[in-house]
Amino acid sequence: MAILHVHVVPNAKSDCVVGTHGGAIKVKLRAPAVKGKANAALVRFLAEKTKLPLRAVVLESGQRSRDKLIRIEGLSEEEVRTHLRAVSLEGGAPRRSIQSHASG
């Protein structure tokens, strides 16, 4: 199981990982931050990029914040970060690397 801190930027031109923001993975989403649309888009985005079912990605906290805590079942934090690193490299070089801050 992986627990990730994610910083979301809604209303972006595309859905992509762009690096980090204060230790959190920074994700831009096209969805607006209204009525849970950005939250749903984030869960779909992470499930798709990690090749996991939607039920494996859970928004633990941050429903009304840009800073969110996400639980992902079935992969370690390092495995998730590896998937997201590949995604960020596909769309161009990330501004900052996505490094693991796992304590074990």
How would you describe this structure to a colleague?
There is one protein chain. With 104 residues, the chain is of the alpha+beta class. The chain has a single domain (2-90), classed as 2-Layer Sandwich (Conserved Hypothetical Protein Mth637, Chain: A), CATH 3.30.1200. Helices cover 27% and strands 29% of the residues. The chain contains two helices and five strands; from the N terminus they run βββαββα. It has helices at 37-50, 77-90, and strands spanning 2-9, 16-21, 24-28, 57-61, 67-72. A five-stranded mixed sheet has the order 2-3-1-5-4, with helices on one face. Strand 4 (57-61) and strand 5 form a beta hairpin. It is globular. The termini are close together. Residues 92-97 and 100-104 have low confidence and may be disordered.
Average the pLDDT over all residues and give the rounded result. 87
CATH superfamily: YggU-like
Number of strands: 5
Cα-based radius of gyration, to the nearest Å: 12 Å
| Biggest sheet features | 5 strands, mixed
Residues in β-strands, percent? 25-35%
The total domain count is 1
Assign the CATH topology: Conserved Hypothetical Protein Mth637, Chain: A
**Parts with pLDDT < 50 across at least 5 consecutive residues:** 92-97, 100-104
Q: Classify the helix fraction into a percent range.
A: 25-40%
CATH architecture: 2-Layer Sandwich
**H/E series, N to C?**
EEEHEEH
